[in-house]
Amino acid sequence: MTRTNIADLALLGGSPWFSEPLHVGRPNVGDREAFLERVNGILERNWLTNQGPLVREFERRVAEKLKIKHCIAMCNGTVALEIAIRALGLTGEVILPSFTFIATAHALQWQGITPVFCDIDPVTFNIDPGRVESLVTPRTTGLLGVHLYGRPCDVCALSDIATRRHLRLFFDASHAFGASHGGKTIGSFGECEVFSFHATKCFNTLEGGAVVTNDDDLAEKVRLMKNFGFSGLDNVIHIGTNGKMNEVSAAMGLTNLEHLDRFIAANRRNYRCYREGLEGIPGLSLISRDGEENSNYHYVVAKVEATEFGLNRDLLVALLRAENVMARRYFHPGCHRMEPYRSLYPHAGLQLAATEALCDRILVLPTGPSVSPEDIVAICALIRYAAEHPQRVSAHCSDGPSPI
Ligand code: T4K
């Protein structure tokens, strides 16, 4: 903390409230000694990658945790998505939400498949099953749901559509490690689910990802594809790529798995602090978590209605960032408004009213074990102050808000 008066906003010339930036996505690292011991073991064995003992153990432990038959570990979530797409034999068009991280769409486009953007449900922010069927064409082969911010899609409705329309259904579960739906762990829905274990995720392996499935044949195909199609030493039986996870990533994964409950407990505590601290601020709502289900609480997501709040989302983000609260606008502006999709499908937005509305209202706040309840009290006080004095903030910024 570098000042004592909340009113001396950094955006208006004061010093930032926090002396160090508070980031969204600060990596969670379990026991450092345990990690280093595993890394020493790797160096002693001199077995660094190619399905080494730690990757095998990691796959076994994740499969056990998720109560799923197969976990195939990968170098990152994007490659895991690409391999899942190939292994499912998708072609033509695949329906997915535009309101997601760009990798979900790129993984399809990279394989020469047309991503067809579907609007979201304005309440859950996930793909709206009611809008999927009107997008199905003779070229549609698949349906890709994203459990955005770790909140499960309407998997029942999507499964129903997939069955009736003969589509292959799979999920981008990058945000949802540790979450459940109807008491079942995320990882067990659709034909397969894909995780990212990137450094910024609740559960990380430095870089990493996985395809998880209960389907033996699909698992076999994914295993081949992530290792150039090798079956035995000199025998290639399928086209493939290099999607392998290395041993150091698996060491990080095994270590972090042992501490996952602690990370999630810190996230849950922080989520409750934010709820309490932001309660009653007009025009600002925090997305809810279903108390009956498991959640990793990894993303603290707020929606700003400018007319009621008094400031628009971008001005609030600029105000917070000036204070060293590095809020993010995940997933502004929506995949359809980024290249190459913006040029390829310039009119996509016409069918994405809920997505477009949300993209301009959403912000994500810092959390995780490195953010304390005291930090959150201050962040909430800054937001409340902004809501109570919008004229002061916007008058000062009438030349345009600071760049975000
Ligand atoms: N599908 C979905 C739905 C996804 O969200 C993602 C990834 C994927 C697929 C693809 O999975 P991967 O191929 O990435 O495994 C970040 C992550 O890079 C990305 O993995 C993640 N989603 C996305 C939501 O967030 P950026 O471009 O926002 O990251 P960056 O570099 O700005 O980092 C965010 C903040 O985290 C930084 O401001 C500071 C902090 N940070 C980051 C790193 C890497 C640290 O403090 N330490 C670090 O080491 O995409």
What's the helix and strand layout?
Blueprint lengths: L21 E2 L8 H14 L7 H14 L3 E5 L2 H11 L5 E5 L4 H8 L4 E5 L10 H4 L7 E7 L8 H11 L2 E5 L7 E2 L2 E2 L6 E5 L12 E5 L2 H10 L21 H11 L2 H19 L5 E3 L13 E5 L1 H4 L3 H10 L2 E2 L14 H4 L8 H7 L2 E4 L7 H16 L1 H7 L8
Parallel strand pairs: 1-13, 3-4, 3-5, 5-6, 6-9
Antiparallel strand pairs: 2-10, 7-8, 9-10, 11-12, 12-14
This protein binds ligand T4K.
The site of ligand T4K has 23 residues, from helix 3 and helix 4.
What is the average of the pLDDT values? 96
In the residues, how many domains can be counted? 2
Share of β-strand residues: 5-15%
How do the helices and strands follow one another from N- to C-terminus? EHHEHEHEHEHEEEEEHHHEEHHEHHEHH
The end-to-end distance, rounded to whole angstroms, is 22 Å
- As a percent range, the share of helical residues equals 25-40%
Bound molecules: ligand T4K
Overall description:
With 404 residues, this protein is of the alpha/beta class. Helices cover 37% and strands 14% of the residues. The chain has helices spanning 32-45, 53-66, 77-87, 102-109, 129-132, 155-165, 216-225, 247-257, 260-278, 306-309, 313-322, 341-344, 353-359, 373-388, 390-396; strands at residues 22-23, 70-74, 93-97, 114-118, 140-146, 168-172, 180-181, 184-185, 192-196, 209-213, 284-286, 300-304, 325-326, 362-365. The strands form four sheets. A seven-stranded mixed beta sheet has the order 2-10-9-6-5-3-4, with helices on both faces. The site of ligand T4K has 23 residues, from helix 3 and helix 4.
